[in-house]
Each structure stands twice: as structure tokens, then as C-alpha cells.
Target: tRNA(His) guanylyltransferase
Amino acid sequence: MAKSKYEYVKFFEKEDTLLKNTWAVVRIDGRGFHKFTAAHCFEKPNDPRGLSLMNRAAQEVMLQIHDIIIGYGESDEFSFVISKKSTLYNRRESKICSTIVSIFTANYVFYWNEYMPDVPLQYPPCFDGRIVLYPSDENLRDYLSWRQADCHINNLYNTCFWTIVQSGVTETEAEAKLRGTVSAQKNEMLFTEYGINYSNLPAMYRRGSVLIRDKIEVKSINTSGKEVTRQKSTILIIHDDIIGSKFWKERKHLLSS
Model:
């Protein structure tokens, strides 16, 4: 590359290398998504099309960025966990964050028509992102537990709120009815007044989506006409409890990645 007298401006760039041997979590959030979902007539309290579109965009991110070991999504946010051993982009914070946010956003728009075929995209969606470092496995698990607990708390409230509104009252009246209630009261209200057993709602709504890498068996016919089986890497979408220990005991390789 040719040099010029203007190259000195490179010295104004800030060093932003992430601390080594730490888990890096990139969390992206929809910007102004309350307005966005209203403009595109998303179903309330959960739109399976919109959530599936988020999952698809996240899958594409993980297919391109192999240093991501696990993804977790709920509502309009997604968290991507990058291995503590990763040297992705020399661990440059701005490069990692901007790349993941742009890949996610691009795929969200690209696959929009596949998941929302009857809803024209009125204007471009926008996502912001940040990176937080977690030094220990316990810290990382607590972070993911926090996000799943947030999913449950928000979804239980929203399920109650929109069920009450759809019964024919105003949003103000629904807010007043729920004010000061705890989880047990919300569950009881849903069951006794509206016949809804919260535990029977789709796990994707209650627990969010967990994306992990796995291998699946794929059968094909070789050139000799024989059926052969090979393993193919894929990104699985599951809706498991990640607060308890069972998930982690069954997948010890995740934290050792």
C-alpha cells in the first residue's frame, strides 16, 4: 500500500482489544421495536413469525462466525457468546460488534419475506449492539440465566396484559389490574379468568431460544449408487431451561470450547 503524508491520522484510532481469556458476549437489541412491531402488525403478546425470523438471522450469524459457541434470544434481542480462546479479528471490540450486528440486520431483512410473506416491509429495522466481558464460567452462566429469567418475567406480564386487553378493556385498565401483582397471581388470573395454563404455552415464548452447534447425520447417494451417511455441522434451535444445571451437564463441551 502506498504511503502518504496523511497516514498520521491512523494514530487517532483508539485501541479497543478485548481482554484475553474472557468470555465476550455480544448483545444486540432492536432499536425502536415497539414502533416497528406496531407498524408491521405483529401479533401480541408473541408473534411466532417474528421470533422465528430473529432465530433465522441468529443462525446465519453463527454459521458465519464460528467462534460463537452459543446464542440466546428473546423478544427483540439476541446474545452471542464468543469463546474465551477466540482470536477473532484480533479481539478488536469494534470490529467484532459491528460485524455481528450488521450480519444479523442484513439477514433479518433478507429473510423477511420468507417469514412475513403477507407483511410488506415498511421501513428498515435497526439493531444496536454492545460487548460485555465475563471472566468466569459462573459469570457467563449467570448472565444467560438473567436473560432467560427476564424472558419469563416479561412474557408472563405481556401474556396477562394482552389477554386482558383482548377481552375488551383498555390498555390503561389492563395496567391497573396487573399493578402490584406477583407471578403466582398472574398465573392464577390467566387460569381462572381466561382458561389459560401458562405452562402449556410454547416454550419459545416462555424460555426464549437457545442456539448451539451440533452435528446431524445426512444420507446421500454416492457415485457408485450406494447410500452413505455423513455428519454435517448445523445450528440447532432449542428452547431448554438454561438456568438449571441439566443443560450444562449434558453439554459440558460448550464451556470448554
